[in-house]
Amino acid sequence: MIKVEHLTKFIGIDKQPILHDVNIQFHKGEMITIVGGSGSGKSTLLRCLALRTKWDEGTFNVDGDDIFKRGISGKIKIKRQWAYLEQSPYFNLKRTALKNVLVGQSSQTPWWRMLTGMVRSDDYMGAMDVIESLGLLEKAHFKTSQLSGGERQRIAIARALVHGAQVILADEPVVGLDPKSIESVLELLRDLCKEERVTVLTVLPLELAERYGTRIIGLSNGKIVFDVKGRRLTHAEKNMI
Ligand SMILES: Nc1ncnc2c1ncn2[C@@H]1O[C@H](COP(=O)(O)OP(=O)(O)OP(=O)(O)O)[C@@H](O)[C@H]1O
User: Fold this and answer.
1) For the chain, which domains are there?
2) What is the predicted ipTM?
């Protein structure tokens, strides 16, 4: 279980809170969608959870481990086991999709492997299995520059899984994609939650959040204003964000 308590984040010299006393608990296999108006703190929340930005207050407990009390080893655990997917994931476009999956993200991979692209043969088999399961086998040997936006997002998800991600934090992963790609990326994330017990937290527009989320968290002015499971939002809830 993952437990976030009193997460607060300030900005500027006047210490304006952009996240204010956020408390969330989440479990394996949940597909949590985060909704809220522009500037409500959605991306900051994901960046805090990915430890891409400093927390000013709060505790972070993952499967019984107090991440901040464990110091650097706690942070390494999160960076290795949690994947943070940006809107436009970083890839070496000259490398094939397969190579990008194998080499991984910088936070998950030793520097020499990033630099040389060297991989072991059992890594190769594992990566091909994951790529196949995500429906991209025929694209594995394409240069990443030749893939569509939706295919690149799926390759980013494959990369996260090959490197053992148990939690995927995805910030607006379907922005700019066509309807078919949106469906394939979100169905893939939903299936991973159901079948592999991966936990996904993703920022999505309201309509997609309702369609794909098992749980919807609403943010307004850096605060959680609702946290609902297994149903659509009421008009009153929609008006809160
Ligand atoms: N590094 C920063 N310096 C100053 N202000 C920041 C910084 N990061 C975020 N903010 C401010 O914090 C607030 C929350 O930003 P955040 O990007 O988390 O919102 P969001 O809900 O993801 O917005 P959007 O939907 O427009 O992407 C915004 O008002 C933003 O301007």
Assistant:
1) 2-239 (3.40.50.300)
2) 0.96
